[in-house]
Amino acid sequence: MFSRIARPASHGLIRGLSTTAQANARVAVLGASGGIGQPLSLLLKNSPLISNLTLYDIAHTPGVAADLSHIETRAKVTGYLGAEQLPESLKGADVVVIPAGVPRKPGMTRDDLFTTNASIVATLTEACAKHCPEAMICIISNPVNSTIPITSEVFKKHGVYNPNHIFGVTTLDIVRANTFVAELKGLDPARVNVPVVGGHAGKTIIPLISQSTPKVEFPQDQLEALIPRIQDAGTEVVKAKAGAGSATLSMAYAGARFVFSLLDAMNGKEGVIECSFVRSEETESPYFSTPLLLGKNGIEKNLGLGKLTAFEEKLVSEAMGELKASIKKGEDFIKSRK
Ligand SMILES: NC(=O)c1ccc[n+]([C@@H]2O[C@H](COP(=O)([O-])OP(=O)(O)OC[C@H]3O[C@@H](n4cnc5c(N)ncnc54)[C@H](O)[C@@H]3O)[C@@H](O)[C@H]2O)c1
């Protein structure tokens, strides 16, 4: 069950969950009672890689933790409620996943969430920098293009910055691209892998269809319809939910997939590759998502953009302005924060 969840993005093979010797990870979910937090915590609870699952939120964690704690898997689940319990929830964490914050409503962009979510992410990552500075930090809260620079600046401020440990979770873009390409080509989506680079908002989401495995080709008009569908897929869900939030179930799946890949790599599994929005030297943007080889210490190697078509190069250059502005907004927020 759930073997599909842990599929490595790199080569599209279905695999079972790893049962390596060091399967004793402590994972903390911050924002665990939310639309993403609850199903994500359920998927994490189902993993033999995790020995301790700590759930933090400003509401409802005692109930969520009590509920999940009855599931017959080994992870010990503990709930923490409210700011005074945040430090305790982070003690000894190997991985912290953060889906805390408000989601979009119809008509909103991810950047419209900045005012609320920037402070939430800054507060939570300040606690991480103090109480689990060595942990891998996986940020789901939007706008990811700004919340990753925010997290980096917070860790720098506390003198504990390690760019190889800070990840913007963009996995849902890859999951969507795999699904849509498979639908169009009549393939099994579990065996499709489309790298998605850039950022996690609108035109900064850049699927590299030319690098898909298996190799697929589309006429230009179909490609020009497919790319915006992947870029706007989040908005498709926001509209369909009509005010009740944004993607939660598919995001929980994608978040769990990313965490399992990271844990596998931390446990010594070789060849684990995921795309993620990270500190990067690959383009003129100081943060950029590209395929990353993961290892025991987080990012082992940035695999870069690879060979792009002229069309993909154009998409990358058109994303730069928005990306850099969102990054600067995040950095400036922390510089001006008391
Ligand atoms: N990276 C992605 O691909 C992606 C995809 C979908 C949604 N998101 C983002 O994920 C975030 C969460 O979405 P959701 O649908 O779960 O929202 P939600 O409103 O259902 O849940 C958010 C949770 O965060 C909690 N929270 C708020 N402030 C907090 C704080 N200071 N400390 C701890 N917890 C706090 C809330 O109590 C709530 O339980 C949003 O920012 C959304 O835009 C990201």
Automatic annotation (TrEMBL):
Which Gene Ontology CC terms are recorded?
Answer: cytoplasm; mitochondrion
Which catalysed reactions does the entry list for this protein? (S)-malate + NAD(+) = oxaloacetate + NADH + H(+)
Per the record, the GO terms for biological process are: malate metabolic process; tricarboxylic acid cycle
| Stored PROSITE patterns | MDH
Give the annotated active site.
Answer: H200 (proton acceptor)
Q: Which residues form the Lactate/malate dehydrogenase N-terminal domain?
A: 26-168
Q: What is its EC number?
A: 1.1.1.37
Residues binding NAD(+), per UniProt: G31, A32, S33, G34, G35, I36, G37, D57, N117, I140, S141, N142, M251
Chain ranges of the Lactate/malate dehydrogenase C-terminal domain: 170-333
Q: Which residues does the annotation say bind substrate?
A: R104, R110, N142, R176
Keywords assigned by UniProt, alphabetized: NAD, Oxidoreductase, Tricarboxylic acid cycle
Q: Name one GO molecular function term.
A: L-malate dehydrogenase (NAD+) activity
The yes or no answer to whether the keyword Transport is present is: no
For this chain, the family text in UniProt reads: Belongs to the LDH/MDH superfamily. MDH type 1 family.
Q: Which InterPro entries match?
A: L-lactate/malate_DH (IPR001557), Lactate/malate_DH_C (IPR022383), Lactate/malate_DH_N (IPR001236), Lactate_DH/Glyco_Ohase_4_C (IPR015955), Malate_DH_AS (IPR001252), Malate_DH_type1 (IPR010097), NAD(P)-bd_dom_sf (IPR036291)
Q: Which Pfam families match?
A: Ldh_1_C (PF02866), Ldh_1_N (PF00056)
> Could you tell me what this protein is called?
Malate dehydrogenase
Which species does the entry assign this protein to? Xenopus tropicalis (Western clawed frog)
Coding gene?
Answer: mdh2
Its quaternary organisation is: Homodimer.
